[in-house]
Design brief:
alpha+beta
Length: 248
């Protein structure tokens, strides 16, 4: 199993509000998480940091994720606790009012693969050189698509395409979507919208097909996003089932 994660501020933003992590334990269980913060006065990076630091704390305090049902409950509880911590922080630091973060998590064990998502950071699996998006973005345009008021093609150019309907720190209580995915995959990719707004699924897939190391693939994805404008922070977390030494 190989893993690698990378974040970049992009070509436009002066600082990086993304945070991410890949963790694993002695049982061979893996957790990947990407959080994309939002809010003025650098509060977005505080919100995403609260999310990732809490995930690290909780994962590292356990010897195993347990059953699939245990993991589903764990993901839901972690999201609720992060939400509470963000609201507590904004109560104590009034200048950060309005901050929040997206969160996408993947938990991969020998027995199951789960994704949890709130916001518009994306979770993918790849298999047989094909990339499949698992998560669904909690955006205004996706809501309009689901009600038939907007086509997917029109959504790509909608002026409010990045308006979020749900995020941690924005709604209380916060509920994540959970996706149960078959484990027979070749890899996992999590990304903030700084990647997916610059590159479509086919363009990302083409990079993942290349005969490159996992580190080179991550760097190429970031480079291509920057070459196409780099209008936002860019984060990628990759797990590849090929044997080898982990890196990050």
């Amino acid at each position: 199993m190989r893993t690698f994660y990378l974040t970049d501020s992009g070509k436009v933003r002066t600082h990086n509000e993304d945070n991410l992590v890949i963790l694993n334990n002695a049982n061979g269980e893996y957790l990947l998480a990407v959080a994309d913060g939002m809010g003025g006065h650098k509060a977005g990076e505080v919100a995403s940091s609260i999310a990732i630091e809490y995930i690290k704390e909780k994962f590292n305090s356990m010897t195993s994720m347990g059953t699939k049902e245990d993991s589903i409950a764990w993901i839901r509880n972690v999201a609720r606790e992060i939400n509470d911590r963000i609201f507590k922080y904004t109560y104590e630091h009034i200048e950060s009012k309005g901050m929040g973060t997206t969160l996408v998590i993947a938990v991969y064990t020998n027995d199951y693969l789960l994704f949890g998502n709130i916001g518009d950071s994306s979770g993918f699996v790849y298999k047989d050189n094909k990339l499949f998006k698992v998560t669904k973005d909690h955006t205004l345009v996706n809501l309009l698509i689901s009600t038939g008021e907007l086509t997917e093609e029109d959504a790509k150019f909608h002026p409010k395409k990045n308006v979020l309907m749900k995020a941690l720190g924005a709604v209380n209580p916060a509920e994540v979507d959970i996706f149960d995915v078959e484990t027979s995959i070749d890899g996992i990719l999590l990304a903030s919208d700084g990647l997916t707004n610059m590159l479509n699924v086919e363009q990302i897939e083409n990079v993942l097909k290349m005969d490159l190391s996992i580190e080179e693939k991550a760097r190429k994805l970031v480079m291509k996003s920057n070459n196409r404008g780099g209008t936002d922070n860019i984060s990628v977390a990759i797990l590849d089932r090929e044997c080898g030494t982990d890196g990050n």
